[in-house]
């Protein structure tokens, strides 16, 4: 990692600290262009916005999908204080961002949390009704 990349990652950590100071979970992210210039910054606002999806990575992925053409998005790097969760990782993939650099891994984050505070996935079942469910999808991705 270069000195400039470390500086950008440190800025994401500063945004995480600001989120915590505002009463939100401590996560921050920024999106940098191919030249390292900061294009946008976000921090977690899930508590103050009363929106469980208000993660900085998701907000930046949405911004990039709206504001950048696909070629420009592919040249960006997201610097984030923590490894993106599954929801955010999916949004990042769909937005076409080029790269993600994170400070804490998900495993490291879990090690910093008290026992019993991890999210638990509800039971799920499927697939089911393939013949019916495929009708609205078939041919869409051509």
TrEMBL record:
Cited CDD domains: nucleoside_deaminase (cd01285)
One Pfam family of this chain: dCMP_cyt_deam_1
Domain CMP/dCMP-type deaminase positions: 3-120
Gene3D superfamilies cross-referenced by the UniProt entry: Cytidine Deaminase, domain 2 (3.40.140.10)
Protein name: Nucleoside deaminase
Species this chain originates from: Nonomuraea marmarensis
């Amino acid at each position: 990692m270069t000195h400039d990349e470390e500086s950008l990652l440190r800025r994401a950590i500063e945004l995480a600290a600001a989120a915590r100071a505002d009463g939100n979970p401590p996560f921050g992210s920024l999106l940098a262009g191919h030249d390292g210039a900061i294009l946008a910054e976000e921090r977690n606002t899930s508590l103050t916005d009363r929106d469980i999806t208000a993660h900085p990575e998701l907000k930046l992925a949405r911004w990039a999908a709206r504001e950048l053409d696909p070629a420009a998005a592919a040249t960006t790097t997201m610097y984030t204080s923590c490894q993106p969760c599954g929801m955010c990782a999916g949004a990042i993939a769909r937005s076409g961002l080029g790269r993600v650099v994170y400070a804490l891994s998900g495993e490291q984050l879990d090690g910093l949390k008290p026992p019993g505070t991890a999210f638990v996935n509800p039971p799920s079942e499927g697939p089911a009704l393939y013949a019916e469910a495929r009708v609205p999808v078939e041919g869409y991705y051509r």
